[in-house]
Amino acid sequence: MKYQRFEDLPVWKAAIDLAVQIFMLTGKQEFRGCGDLKNQMERSSLSISNNIAEGFERGTTQELLTFLYIARGSAGELRSMLLFLECLPAFRNLKSEIANLKSLAESDN
What is the CATH number that goes with domain 9-106? Predict the structure, then answer.
């Protein structure tokens, strides 16, 4: 199947869903006083879908692949921050939600 728009790509849709869930997580009370961490998590989650979109719009397979690797790097950055959260006692009650988000950030779809 040939996609005409990045909005139709399943990987872009999954990235948007992940970003929405990250924004929901960072909107929780536990993130009060964690401005820089919250901001970086939101930015890296948005970077995933934005890089997929930019690569698609560039129009060449090579550029798409380059931007997909950049998006993958942003997903790794996000996973690293989620792993960090797991180490903090203040986020203990969000453990299952964080684990789910790590899995989504690691997913290939």
Answer: 1.20.1440.60
